[in-house]
Specification:
The chain is mostly helical. Helices cover about 80% and strands about 0% of the residues. Helix 1 (about 5-30) packs antiparallel against helix 3, helix 1 packs parallel to helix 4 and helix 3 (about 50-75) packs parallel to helix 5 (about 110-130).
Length: about 130
Amino acid sequence: MSIELTYLVWSAALALVYLFVQSTFYRVDYGVDYANSQRDENVPPPSKLNARAQKALANFLETYAVFVALAIATEVSGRSDGLTQWGVHLWFWARCAYLPAYFIDVKQLRSMIWVVSLIGLILMFVGVAF
């Protein structure tokens, strides 16, 4: 299996980690009964950690579709090379670092990690498109 496909599979596990963290903080905030309900009532604002988990998940999902498309395009086209491989590594490991960075609140760290993941996507795009 190619590096791109290997990381695509592991990215699904990473997506589940993001989802697990978000759903855990949601349940801590609102309780299991409310989380399992239709949620028709007005919900109080989330706690700081719950809000961060929600934002981190949303941010992950914003780039995840692009990553999946580029990983599949790389595999289908047979255009795996140094650029696509570096891109996959940068995106994946930056996304691994992004989740805890969202919680530790070091000024600019989260944004720098996001930029690294974006560079990874750009490398993948250039590698497969040109």
